[in-house]
Amino acid sequence: MKAQIPLYSQIQQYVLEQIQTGALRPGDQVPPERKLADLFNVSRITAKNAIIGLVAEGYLFRHRGKGTFVSDQEAPAQAAQNAYASGIGAAAVGSEARAAIVAAAGALRAEARSGKPRRVGMIMPWMEFRYQSLLVSGVEYELSRRDCHLVFKRVDEQNGEEQSTLQQLLELPVDGLIIVASRSDFIHDALLRLLLEKFPIVFVEKYFRDYKVHAVHCDTEKVGYMMGEYLIRAGKRKVGYVSYPADYTAGVKERLFGFQSAAMAEGIPLVHLSLSLSVSPAIVTGMNQLHHQPVPAEIFDFLDSHPDLEAIATVDAHIAQFVGRACRQRGRQMTIVSCDEPSFAAECVMPEAYVDQSPVEMGIAAAELILDVMEQRQSEASIRRVEPKLVTLK
């Protein structure tokens, strides 16, 4: 099956063809981005991104306050003319001819960049620092190995920062996007438009029921199952579960489901709502993780209300540390298992085990996939799954 040409590439091809045929000559002004957006029925951001790309490649130049004009540069013009003379022209409208245009334009863009690395934008909400840093490290490692730059932006979704951050990255511009877990499966208009326009995007730990997308994720339901299975097989029956609200991310909800599924599989009653605690995600937001925070009062209340608890499973390593510190301060013996590798903390009951989501491996997989999409080696929607692993610390 032929890969569809991204709409921003179609705009670039259109402008190049105007130059090739002489409809636009050196010094001529190209149509405004607004007119190009209307002509191709795309967003202004997409049109602007296409024009910025041609400016970067030397085909066009900008004059502040006046507009964008055709460059008087022989090399790009001659390369475009050679492509056109080879039969890759505006009159060739078949799918194979259009694919050839893409290949030629891609070659010209690569040559015009003179070896400049491509840029991939990465958007991520506030998350537990260790998991986040390992995930970013995996992405950066693979992109650097493939001569690409990473532009990283962290957002606070509650303040509606994702859409504005998306626009900022596109205006740089970037050649592709990696978007990490955000709340719910809602797609805002700006992101939906990019998906429809086939802009290279890979989602990490984020799923959509109604859209086919490129994605990388760990089996988070299995993560929850493995935590529950570990505690039950250790003979624990009075088990608590501490998490963020179920609607925080899809992964949080799936871990709880997996945890309950393990109880059912072992013939144990489901964890009652009274044994499940949701803490505010504010504890991982902003600078909070950089300072020694006091244990949230609700965790102390949870322990005090359940003196017979034998074990607690936590949704991430940051919450595990709070639970461990609370247990030490209350003098409670507790078996703790967490999702993700915990960091050492003084005066803390450390987890006996954790489920490793392999964030470095996930980051590398995300970088490999976005490059495949950008280079049009992967056109069909692709889901790459990383399997979790149980690690015991005793």
Number of discrete helical segments: 13
What is the SS-derived class? Answer: alpha/beta
- Largest sheet descriptor: 6 strands, parallel
- Helical content, roughly? 40-55%
- Beta-strand segment tally: 14
Strand content: 15-25%
Average pLDDT score: 80
State the CATH class of the largest domain. Alpha Beta
What's the N-to-C terminus distance?
A: 52 Å
Could you say what the CATH architecture of the largest domain is?
3-Layer(aba) Sandwich
Shape: elongated
- The main sheet orders its strands as 4-3-5-6-7-13
Return residue spans where pLDDT drops below 50 for at least 5 consecutive residues: 74-114
- Give, in order, the helices and strands: HHHEEHHEHEHEHEEHEHEHEHEEHEE
Rg, rounded, reads 26 Å
Quick take:
The protein has helices at 7-20, 33-40, 44-56, 74-85, 95-112, 129-145, 161-171, 189-196, 220-233, 250-265, 297-305, 317-330, 359-374; strands at 60-63, 67-70, 118-125, 148-155, 176-180, 201-204, 214-218, 239-243, 276-278, 311-314, 335-339, 353-356, 383-386, 389-392. With 394 residues, the protein is of the alpha/beta class. α1 (7-20) packs across α4, α4 packs antiparallel against α5 (95-112) and α6 crosses α13.
Structure description:
- The protein folds into three domains: 7-112, Arc Repressor Mutant, subunit A (Orthogonal Bundle), CATH 1.10.10; 118-219 and 360-387, Response regulator (Rossmann fold, 3-Layer(aba) Sandwich), CATH 3.40.50; 220-356, Response regulator (Rossmann fold, 3-Layer(aba) Sandwich).
- 43% of the residues lie in helices and 17% in strands.
- The chain has 13 helices and 14 strands.
- α1 (7-20) packs across α3 (44-56) and α2 (33-40) packs across α3.
- The longest helix has 18 residues, at 95-112.
- The radius of gyration is 26 Å and the shape is elongated.
- Residues 74-114 have low confidence and may be disordered.
